[in-house]
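As a warm-up, study this chain.
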Amino acid sequence: MILTIYGDIVGYTIYFKTEISRWNELKEFLVKTCHGIGFYVKVQKDSIIINPGFSKVEPLIIMKKGSNAVKTYGLEPYTSLYKLILYSLSSFGSVEIFED
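Now compare it with the structure written out below.
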């Protein structure tokens, strides 16, 4: 859903909490998956940054353990792809997702 007020897109945020037990496997999975859909990926020691290459959507930062949020402004297909990525984390540990 995209809401417009005076020509500006209203914010839409996905909040999430992760605790990944199979971190190395997740890194491999996300690198392959994100490259396959044309997203840029930067792997760090305890986080993975996924950038769709679209300046109106924030990069998705997934931490090995912790809480975070990402604004997609409800723009598709980015919102749905981010949610699919986040829900897939449950195969590698635990994830809680809340939308606003």
